[in-house]
Amino acid sequence: MRGKAAWTERIVDAGAVPAAFVPAASGGRSDVEEIAGAELVEEERVAVHAVAPGGGPATVSFLDGIQRWAVVGYDGVVPIVRGYVAAAARRRGADRRLRVAREAARELAVAPLALLRAGVRRALEESGAAVIDLGAEAAGQPGRLLVAAQQAVNAERVRVETEVAEAVAARLGAEEWLVVDGLLSESAKLAGHPRALGVIKSHSAQYFEGADLQTALTCPGGTRTSVFRPRGRARHEVYSWYLRLWPWEGNDLLFGLLRIEARAHAGTVATATGVSSWLLAERAPLATPDARFDRLLYPIHDVETYLRSRAPRDLLLTAGSRLPKTGT
User: Residue 36 pLDDT > 70, yes or no?
Assistant: First the structure.
């Protein structure tokens, strides 16, 4: 799976024009900006609680996923996209070594099938990849189709991550935990699990306003906020709180800030400081050279590094020039 897919050559043989364009946003999921709102469940106003790094469960599985996509051809002005999504959970036991517990990967062929000529469409359908039909309603400027393709790849990544996470969660021992890079609230099984946590690094959804917003987003390093119930965006009910891994002063307001999701249960409030304590310890060693090291738990970084090592090389952004070759 690491090399160029054969089906990309077959669509060219069928009449498509080859392309090699990896969008700058190919590597990560897009997020939606919104004002979601929240209901506090721990205190009447947002408060800040001190957290010290501490020991955690003996056995923890960490899960992350990746997505890659690139335009590999055009049929007229219709872009044809090759996508790749993968997810893995790596389990750390008593010996502190991370080992793969479960993984899944999927090759994608993305295009509005109704807009393709018969031969190109047939080559796509016989590619062996999971074909995602964008639908003729996405027709128009190629840019609109690329936005639709990115959303489709993103949705498939969420689906693969959820499948792997739910399978791992179903097999957790009585004292084992699962830490997911992303939302628990996408899955009823994960949202309701007593030992599953979601770790969210992006903060486009706004849950508070006024003084509560300021308190939440300026909490010092090594602290957590009050537990709250997110509103609006969550598909399944969870409890949540902010956790600051590193001081933000002198950096950016969101530097080192995570939002944690856990089961909507009184026990979550009771254990929020203890859970935050062992999550705080997971910031070391630093997840460098990743630019997101301030919000990236090291075991999650390890999973992502593993997934990247297995991803197709031709779907990675490169520093090479896109200037035309002149032969001189």
Answer: yes
